[in-house]
Specification:
The chain is α+β, with helices and mostly antiparallel strands. It has helices at 46-54, 96-106, 111-124, 140-152, 170-187, 198-204, 222-227, 232-237; strands at residues 2-13, 20-31, 35-39, 61-66, 69-70, 81-84, 158-162, 190-195, 207-212, 215-220, 242-252, 255-259, 265-269, 279-284, 289-292, 300-309, 313-320, 325-331, 345-350. Bound molecules: adenosine-5'-diphosphate and magnesium ion (MG). It is an enzyme of class 7 (translocase).
């Protein structure tokens, strides 16, 4: 069941020569109880889309439906939608509990109901012990929990989260990612989460919409987006990527045979509803490739240009004989460095279903 339908929504700021198209005809269906993420680089229109859903701003064209109803006539406070902002926007002179109850008070809810709901929310975000602390006296991560509890207190049907974790340091961010997932699952509320961090999007989301320059480039679950990027921008933005120019030799069913520069042929998959032919670009993820000492029967070969130790993995940059830089990612064992050295000539093997 669609909680939110975005139908051809655009937002153009300014006029004449100074026009900026923040969103250009976006279509999206976001399901009830979904953890849905808008992912894209800074300036691609993520915040604009959230503001339109919240009612802080209005589309230049298009409609937004909430459970089938056009929400255009509803002012922000009448929409069953709430927002968690990046800067939390808490009231520093109030206690944790007062902050959480603030929205309910504004709605004129009875005292007893507010009290019960605040306790419930404190428990949900594991902040009961902090209920009487001033917000200015708790940590950033705890403030984040309070902001989440406050936004959920009025029981919104949809919660909008605009880069809520980007101000937190790495460890705390990882911890809050897990917390947000847990709270979403426990409450069953539809979350629309915004991030420019692809790893965060991949680990947290049921589905992701990848955006660029005011449009949605691809929608899918994390592995669809990662393993089957629909286009170059998506492949490049999500994860590390090698691009190779190849020639299509034959197509059968959902896969093709393509010829590399070396003349060797490898299998490749391609997006549904497309029939590749002629010269195409394929994507090979660095972890789908491995080095080999032998160069003669390997589909690719070249010279090692860089070796970067990354803890769990080592990234090896190989300058292919054709001139392109190709990254290979190998898992580290506990027996020390990877055993290859810069300047060494190597072959590159590819796993079976590597390319697109
Ligand atoms: P994101 O949240 O993905 O970083 P935004 O939605 O904030 O992107 O902005 C999208 C584009 O719209 C940007 O080019 C931004 O400069 C522009 N924009 C956003 N708000 C306004 C505004 N009020 N007036 C003019 N341009 C705006
Ligand atoms: Mg933004």
């Amino acid at each position: 069941k669609a909680a939110i339908e975005i139908r051809g929504v655009s937002r153009v700021y300014g006029a004449g020569n100074a026009q900026v198209t923040a969103l250009g005809g976006v279509f999206l269906n976001i399901q009830e109880n979904e953890f849905f993420t808008l992912l894209g680089p800074s300036g691609c229109g993520k915040t604009t889309l959230l503001r339109l859903i919240a009612g802080f701003d209005f589309p230049t064209s298009g409609e937004i439906l909430l459970y089938g109803q056009d929400i255009a006539p509803l002012p922000p406070f009448k929409r069953p939608v709430n927002t968690v902002f990046q800067n939390y926007a808490l009231f520093p002179h109030m206690t944790v509990a007062e902050n959480i109850g603030f929205g309910l008070q504004m709605l004129g809810k009875p005292k007893a109901e507010i009290k019960a709901r605040v306790e419930e929310m404190l428990e949900l975000v594991h902040m009961t012990a902090m209920r009487d602390r001033q917000v200015s006296q708790i940590s950033g991560g705890q403030q984040q929990r309070v902001a989440l509890a406050r936004a959920l207190a009025p029981k919104p049907k949809v919660l909008l989260l605009d880069e809520p974790l980007s101000a937190l340091d790495y460890k705390l961010r990882k911890e809050m990612q897990v917390e947000l997932k847990r709270v979403q699952a426990e409450t069953g509320i539809t979350f629309i989460f915004v991030t420019h961090d692809q790893e965060e999007a991949l680990t947290m989301s049921d589905r992701i919409a990848v955006m660029s320059a005011g449009s949605v480039r691809q929608v899918g679950n994390p592995w669809e987006i990662y393993d089957h990027p629909a286009e170059r921008f998506v492949a490049n933005f999500i994860g590390e990527t090698n691009f190779l120019e190849v020639e299509v030799v034959s197509v059968e069913g959902g896969s093709a045979k393509v010829r590399l520069r070396s003349g060797k042929e490898i299998p490749a998959t391609f997006p549904e509803q497309t029939t590749p032919s002629g010269k195409v670009t394929i994507v090979i993820r660095p972890e789908h490739a491995a080095l080999s000492e032998r160069t003669d029967d390997a589909p690719l070969s070249g010279t090692i240009e860089s070796i970067v130790y990354l803890g769990t993995d080592t990234n090896i940059g190989v300058r292919l004989d054709g001139g392109t830089l190709f990254n290979v990612r190998q898992q580290n064992s506990r027996s020390g460095p990877c055993g290859y050295s810069e300047g060494q000539t190597v072959g590159i093997k590819l796993s079976d279903d590597v390319a697109q």
